[in-house]
Amino acid sequence: MSERYDYIIVGAGLAGASAVEGVREVDTSGQVLLLGAEPDRPYHRPPLSKKLWFGDEKVEGVFVHDADFYAEQGVKLGLGTQVVKLDPRARTVTTADGSQYQYGKLLLATGGVPRRLAIPGGDIPEICYFRTRQDYLALRAGAVPGAHALVIGGGFIGSELACALAHAQVQVTMLFPSSHVCSRVFPHGLGDALGARLSARGITILAFDKPISIHHTGHRFHTETEGGRKIESDLLVAGVGVSPATELALQGGLRVDGGICVNQYLQTSAPDIYAAGDNAVFPSALLGRPVRVEHWDNALNQGRLAGKNMAGAHAPYAYSPYFFSDLFDFGYEAVGDVDARHETFADWQQTNEKGVIYYLENALVRGVMLCNVWGQVDAARALIMAQTRGSAEALRGAIPFGD
Q1: Domain region containing 172
Q2: To the nearest whole percent, how much of the chain has pLDDT over 90?
């Protein structure tokens, strides 16, 4: 016989932990089961590639809640538990050990899975596909001064980890196929300037190249590239993107299209099943189209609302999430569609140091990046919602730089 819970949350990341809070805001007594595949209770991921490396936070401080929070909230916590089957008709989930649980409402907060290198050697266990707290602990242990790390990938996680490792006095080489770091979001000029900044900190940047094979012998990695390079390293970190974890949704016959499709209330195609976080494709009020967002702010707010709606709130998700990153002393926040393929207008106070970049589609502002400009995320959202025309006259000074 299966145990029954009013609410089952599959995925003990930030979205899942926030969903617990949302449920309890509306229903203080319903039975809640939170299942997570990782051994750790829910934690914040951004510090793993940011503050923990620079001494701004301790590893004990990354957890979303204190250890006794879940018991105090009457939540059963099942860690190190992989859910392998979803049956919407029977309203059950089954775990890898054969345990079966019945739900009243279910949330899929399964997040994302790091993409693997589809090359010979891409499955070597010692490669760090950086994602979890355990990955951080393992990489930090190997990041001794003088070691050499190869970071494959020049996007968010690759660039952040390159900076973190360099700060730990590791010799860092970055390898990626695009022309500059974070090429998906940074215009060419800014990307080149930040690449020069990273190079000045001792990071070797190998652009327009990619790995074709990896070998691991004698605790050393040997990577061969398409451009004919042969790179030896003590550490190998691959940050080549994340795929939404949709296996359970597909198995349960839910609608999936680039992620688990949800409506404005975060309900999937099965009304008693919700999805939130990195795996959910939701209608964006800001952009007027479905999007999937892999950032902390979305998991925090979407998870909380999903929990409230599971408990009966029926509130639309009208929030427009933002994301942020830091590359040494260059920090930025962004909202909307910051796609480098769009036309851009940069309003700089100091070129490639401090200013605002506007991303334009059909002459309308669709995204805003705030470069070392703080406290203006709401102003950026308002500018996009107002369907602001993207002329230099309209945009210059539209968002103040602050002090």
Answers
A1: 133-238
A2: 93
pTM as predicted: 0.94
Instruction: Show the tokens assigned to 45.
Output: 């991921």
* Distant-in-sequence, close-in-space partners of 107: CB < 8 Å, separation ≥ 6: 7, 8, 9, 10, 11, 16, 19, 273, 274, 275, 276, 303, 306, 307, 310
Phi, psi of 182 (to 5 degrees): 50, 45
* Distance separating alpha carbons of residues 301 and 321, to the nearest angstrom: 8
DSSP 8-state code for residue 255? -
Cα distance between residue 336 and residue 321, in whole Å: 8
* Position 74 in a domain: yes
- Cβ distance 116 to 122 under 8 Å? yes
Give the model confidence (pLDDT) of 294-305 as tens digits. 999 999 999 999
Q: Classify residue 202: in a domain, yes or no.
A: yes
- Buried/exposed code over 366-376 (b: 16+ C-beta within 10 A; e: otherwise): bbbbbbbbeeb
Residues 15 and 66 occupy one common structural domain: yes
The verdict on 234 and 247 lying in the same domain is: no
**If you search the block for the tokens 């009457």, which residue do you land on?**
74
Looking at 279, 310, 341, the residue that finishes a domain is 310
Residue with tokens 């993207």: 390
pLDDT of 175 higher than 60: yes
- Report the alpha-carbon distance of residue 282 to residue 313 in Å, rounded: 18
What's the CATH code of the domain at 180? 3.50.50.60
Domain count within the chain: 3
* 102 and 9 together in one domain: yes
Structure-token match 């004990």, residue found: 60
Asked whether the predicted pLDDT for residue 286 surpasses 90, the reply is: no
- Quick check: 266 and 276 in contact, CB under 8 A? yes
Residue 76 lies in a domain: yes
Q: What are phi and psi of 111, to 5 degrees?
A: 70, -140
Element (H, E) at 194: helix 188-200
Dist. CA 332–CA 370, nearest whole Å: 5
User: Do 186 and 275 belong together in one domain?
Assistant: no
